[in-house]
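MODEL INPUT / OUTPUT PAIR
PAIR INDEX: 1
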Amino acid sequence: MGKANPGKLRIYLGSAAGVGKTYAMLCEGHRRAERGTDVVVGYVEPHGRKHTVELIEGLEVIPRARLPYRGTIFEEMDLDAVLARRPQVALVDELAHTNVPGSRHEKRWQDVEELLRAGIDVISTVNIQHLESLNDVVEKITGVPQRETVPDAVVRGAEQVELVDMTPEALRRRMAHGNIYAPEKIDAALNNYFRAGNLTALRELALLWLADKVDEGLQRYRADHHIRQTWEARERVVVALTGGPEGETLIRRAARIAARSTGGDLLAVHVTRSDGLTGADPAALAAQRRLVESLGGSYHQVVGDDIPQALLTFARAENATQLVLGASRRSWLSSLLTGPGFGQRTIRGSGDIDVHIVTHAHMGRGRGLPRPGGGLTLRRQLAGYLLAAVLAPLLTIVLTSDRGGINLISDVLIYLVAVIVVALVGGFVPAVLLAIASSLLLNFYYVPPIHKFTIAEVNNALALGVFVVVALLVSSVVDIAARRTRQAARAEAESALLATTAGGVLRGQRAVEAVLDRVREAFGMDSVTLLERGDGADGQRAPGAAWAVVAHSGTAPVTAPDDADVEVPVGQDLCLALRGHTLTAADHRVLEAFAAYAAVALEQQRLTAEAEAARPIAEADRMRTALLAAVSHDLRTPLASAKAAVTSLRSPDVTWDAADREELLATADESLDKLTRLVDNLLEMSRLQAGALSVFSRPTALDEVVAAALDDLGPAGRDVVVDIPDSLPEVQADPGILERVIVNLTGNALRYSPAGQPPLLSASALGGRVELHVVDRGPGIPADDLDRIFVPFQRLGDTDNTSGVGLGLALSRGLTEVMGGTLEPDETPGGGLTMIISLPAAVGDGQPATAAPGRRERHGAAGGTASPVTRDGPGVAAAPSGTQGGAAREGTG
């Protein structure tokens, strides 16, 4: 029985081989052993390094398991022995190592996971180039693909990840002093993988990756402890975009600010208001989004009625340290009438977030974007009340002072203009109040009898009545227009947001998570979770079944709809649950559309997964159908020949002399050989298609494999010309599979080579890879058919069906690719084809490609001349100019 609690994983992370990961791991093992902890060495690879070997002494070492594979004995960690020993701590080196076929697990990190499940703490090591997410980046930097990788989630899941760091100069000195590799490998390593530029780039990758992991831990801590204020542990620059022409200036300025600190993040955010800054040009926003992403930043879109508050809420949620805004595009008059702009209001509420107001060419030239009101904003309504309170007495004083020069009609029109102005500024209510007050003032001061609230003439009463009605109508029209503008603005904002989300669902992977991220950002929620009702005991979903989390965004997921602040059901089995704050009815309507998007995205994701799962089945079915169709015909000829020969030999009616018997036996033997090769190819192709082919790559001398392949070809192999330079590095490949590929390709080349022009096998190395050219001078293949030769059951140019089912090249390419190589055809200058096998040079844990003893010889005396090969740097051979090349069309393997 294992311990109740799983073990803890500690990892020493390095940028390259030789920085001291294993040394640090062993030192930690000694420290724990001195404190009384039960520590054992599960597996440590010292690589012949003296100081590492010395540190192993004094620690209990679990004997390694010895596993046979392809006639060789390999040593691996004895997982069962470690589990039986049950130490408190196990030291397990090289987390990304691939175990020998026949081991319980394919990868060593899977062994470590089993130890952790058994309650054993594990201390391990890994280099940054072995992380799965950085595999392609490391290959671009070093030119060497890493075949041994470990999922990032395994390393990120470790309780502790400690960086073992060393400067490139110090690491190269260690290399030069012989503390990492054997003396014969030092020069090649320093001039290839361990160049100063490579080491600097790998070191930066390690530092940045670890910084990201530390940042994840910090965010979890802040969320768990409900910490809202900004912690300036890492620069995060948020730039606010309106879709205006100043956007590119702001983005570039923010990018320069973020670039001043290593690892700084750039985030762009556009706030879509229901009653504010709308009308942004979608094309301009799309262009600005592309610019942000090209500068390494991320684009976000949120919805908020208060733009400054929405910006600051987003910035604090992302733990931003700086906020970049553009200077206002409003004119000075607009600023005077409407008060402080977004920039000033954002600064007042920013707290510990630095706010940068960036000037640009468009400031002070008008907003360029309409600012629709809500009914109207509170600020405008207050301005309307204030204006009404000022205009009423002011007009009364002015008009009373000139009572004799202006008649009643002019007085009414002047007051009407004032009412219209107040309606435009403050809306319906201030204008109605001013209209009532104005009618009373007109009656008291200007309608006879003066200074009395009576009207002597009917015309004057009619004029005042019309005045009040017009004032009310104008005020109502202004208010209705403002409300319609608000509704249109909100509809535009909603449609833009939903259209963006729909496009993401249709385009992107992680569609469900993308929708949830959009919901969380748009509504300012802490957590958004998609819940699905689980299956009952009978496999059917019951109304009372428990809810399960399908996907979530933000902090800890909501586990049940009752725990959410907002819940939106999607049918009977799905529910979108939000935690953070309640939403308005209008927001609920938009949220329902998001919930429908999430359901569609989930269905799309599951259908895609089902399609991916069904694809191998369909491919296998197609292959089986093709195999049966091919076997039904191609097995018939060798079987018929063998059967006829054996039947003739056994016939009692005919007496055969020795020569006839020998000829019949030879016919039977040849037919059975063809049958054997055909069945072998069919079985290998089936295993390859099913993914059941075991591959064990290791450093392999190419010349030795070529020699073995030519021996397999028998007498025909003696005619092949071989040109392999002495300086050629070893390749990382499975020797048995590579030999099979070379036999296939060389046999094809022999079949199509004209008399007196035997095939040529030449090799060269460049950029961390080794290429083997299998050349023939045969009839060649049209350029349009080059890719078709790798389709199973193709025999391009064949005139009969006696030469095989057409699996040779399809099988050869498949076998090459499972070893991490490529097989490509090319035209031979002067006629014929060349088959090019490209394989990675042998590099293990940062080890450089090592030179293997070469062979350059000619088998037999057939025509053809080997081209010379020149050296181009340590361990790298340049391909000869004018090298001949050719390719066979179909092989029987």
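PAIR INDEX: 2
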Amino acid sequence: MTDIQRDRLLRAALGFLALEPRAPELQLLHRWADNWRGVGDVIGGMERQGFRLHLTNIEAGAWRATFSRDAMSAAEGFAAAPTPWAAVQRAAWAAVTKEDSERR
């Protein structure tokens, strides 16, 4: 699989993960992604795109995820959520969509 194919697959998965899992196909996707294994898979995909993750459990039931290319600059993607996987998925989506808007 090429880097372009990996990038497109990551973006598609993140986009579908943003939808409510009402359809059986989306439920299956969430079963894959809504756990620590899914967090690792998203992180791996984002690392291939040059992003690094900072994940913090700020308090009970509150996780904060930040994706950036450079630790000394502003984050390209940020999200807070009650679970680590939701925070990582949302922050990753924010980073890749911000990157898309900056290309235009």
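PAIR 2 NOTE: The first strand starts at residue 52 and ends at 59.
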